[in-house]
Amino acid sequence: MTQVVALIALLVFALFMVIIGVLNARHAKTMDGFLLGGRKIGPWMSAFAYGTTYFSAVIFIGYAGKFGWDVGLASVWIGVGNALVGCFIAWKFLAGRVRNMTHTLNARTMPEFFQQRYNSKNMKLFSAVIIFLFLVPYAASVYKGLGSYFGKMFPDAGNLIPGLSSTVLCMLIVAVLTGLYLVFGGYMAIAMSDFVQGLIMIGGVAVLAVAITLSAPVGGLGSAISQLKAIQPSLVSFTGGGLWNVLLINILLTSVGTFGLPQMVHKFYAIKDKHAVRRATVVSTLFALVIGGGAYYVGSMGRIVLNNTLPVGGYDEVMPVMLLQTFGSTLLGSILLSVILLLLLSASMSTLSSVVLTSATAVSVDLVQQVRPKLKDKTQLKLTRVLCLLFVALSFVFATFNFAIIVSIMSYSWGIVAGSFIGPFLWGMFSKKTTHAGAWCGMLAGFATVLTMTIVSTATHMPEASGLYEAFKMASTNSPLYGVCAMGVSLAVVPLVSLVTKKFSKDHVAKCFKEADDFVAKKA
After folding, report:
1. Sign (positive/negative) of CA torsion 275, 279, 285, 291?
2. What gap in Å lies between CA 482 and CA 13, rounded to an integer?
3. What is the CB neighbour count within 10 angstroms for residue 57?
4. pLDDT tens digits for 53-102?
5. pLDDT tens digits, residue range 495-506?
6. What distance in Å separates the CA atoms of residue 308 and residue 7, rounded to the nearest whole number?
7. Helical segments of 232-375, H only
8. Residue 146 and residue 344 in contact, taking contact as beta carbons nearer than 8 Å
9. What does the pLDDT read at residue 515?
10. 156 touches 164 (CB < 8 A)
11. By CB neighbour count within 10 A (0-12 exposed, 13-18 middle, 19+ buried), where does 454 fall?
12. How far apart are CA 277 and CA 495, in angstroms?
């Protein structure tokens, strides 16, 4: 029964996504239209595009399962941090300035911004290479969360295509659907589909949180608190007990890190005007509170539903097993599980499409255009579409590898990209005194911090590991800390180096900041 209901829901959803892509093809006939939707995206679509890119299936399956199990109810603070810092502060203080400055500099991507802001083609190339190398494995991680849940719901689905497991089949469905609507409709299709997917995510999380609270094993919020306290008092601690430092590191990484992720700040480039920014600030913050807070809250119920026994397969299996065990025996439960499937599918496709578009443009706009500066718009558009398909395929192939080293590389992607870009991007937006050398040093320092800490940690674990591979796996457990340190180093190095290095001309600074300053003045 569960499989039939879920299959019907999946087919309807797939058809709807393809229709969205086809209907928006008219908006994607130029590079500007394909990448930015003509910079005319309204507040609701912009806010949902930002939020759905923020939260992929990884938060529901990986993060919520792990931190809900280890930290308990205090893991909800990660979702609150995402809402207040990653959304509210980002939109309140960054969105309008980013929109106007990138418009002034005619920058459609973050590497283009670095080139125009700092007069540096090499910085554009270096940042494009980082995006290319580390966003593809990041995209691959998006498949993983959904694949484990799909595999539990459709254990025999792999028999439909010989040689494919049900998990791989699910990832293939996501890849095909994402590739279709992205290539047809570009950013406008992403924004419109994100709006629909965002509504599904909000409804799914709200229903899920209520249903799991009222389920027989949990028995209401009061009972949940009592049961968690009986299992381990720290699970109901306001600060997470002895794991407050782990909680803080992950709040910082997933909240502050968004300021330096190109697929996130790209949403600010395309928003219509300052009025849309104000509305989107409220919408995106509320969206994140519901999705982030709800996901971690549900994850914290895992110990109760699973009788304090971690499933075979570890943290990634906590959410799929608890949901199927709780709701898999009735028609109403089957409908709920189908809604959750669409919730995870929506979260995965929205994040994947944004990451793929960012990766593809890093090549077609930021790398190829350097070699062929006179590349025609139509040729560049065709190349971008082809690269979108290629990156979808590459991320799919990465995701099918079950080697632990691939999973470890994925965990570094967020920290490396955000750690490299956050310093030069934020200081370049807000400080007229930021120099070319300061930006370069900040970018290289953030990148080197992650690599250095990884090498040192791996070497430290060598005596207790069976080899280099095993030592690297052990070191990867601290990847959130590496990312937070990299962001801190990048933010500190840029202004320090800028104090003692050559400043840009007044004309260059005035050109860069004209519209951004106008936005702040009008807002005041």
Report:
1. negative
2. 38
3. 29
4. 888 767 777 778 888 899 999 999 999 999 999 999 999 999 989 988 98
5. 999 999 999 999
6. 32
7. 244-256, 262-270, 274-300, 302-305, 318-327, 331-364, 368-371
8. yes
9. 60
10. no
11. buried
12. 28
β partners of residue 41: 271
Quote the CA–CA distance of 286 and 111 in Å, as a whole number.
Answer: 30
Instruction: Transcribe 357-399 into DSSP letters.
Output: HHHHHHHHTTTHHHH-TT--HHHHHHHHHHHHHHHHHHHHHHH
CA–CA dist 398, 237 (Å, integer): 38
* CB 334, CB 328: distance < 8 Å: yes
- Concatenated DSSP letters for 412-479? HHHHHHHHHHHHHHHHHHH-TT--HHHHHHHHHHHHHHHHHHHHHHHHHHGGGSSSHHHHHHHHGGGH
The tokens describing 94, both together, are: 């960054």
Is residue 403 left, alpha or beta, with left meaning phi > 0 and alpha meaning psi from -120 to 50? beta
372/156: higher pLDDT: 372
Q: Summarize the confidence of residues 441-453 as an average pLDDT.
A: 94
Torsion angle (degrees, nearest 10) of CA 273, 279, 282, 283:
-100
User: Is 41 in a helix, a strand, or coil?
Assistant: strand
Beta-bridge partners for 271: 41
Contacts of 496 (CB under 8 A, 6+ apart): 438
Rounded to 5°, angle at Cα 427 from 425 and 431? 135
Counting other chains too, the contacts that 313-318 makes at CB distance below 8 Å and 24 or more residues apart are 313/148, 315/62, 315/65, 315/66, 315/69, 316/61, 316/62, 316/65, 316/144, 316/145, 316/148, 317/65, 317/148, 318/65, 318/66, 318/68, 318/69
Residue 271, classed as helix, strand or coil, is: strand
Q: What is the mean pLDDT of the chain?
A: 82
Lowest mean pLDDT among 184-198, 267-281, 295-309: 184-198
Cα 339 from chain centroid (whole Å): 21
pLDDT at residue 306 tops 60: yes
Round to whole Å and give the CA distance between 182 and 360.
11
CA distance 36 to 27: 10
Query: 44: closest CA among 289, 280, 265, 339?
Result: 280
CB neighbourhood size of 401 (10 A): 11
The full 3-state SS of 95-134, as one line of letters, equals HHHHHHHHHHCCCCCHHHHHHHHHCCHHHHHHHHHHHHHH
Name the token pair of 440.
């370069």
Residues 6+ positions from 354 with CB-CB distance below 8 Å: 49, 53, 190, 263, 266
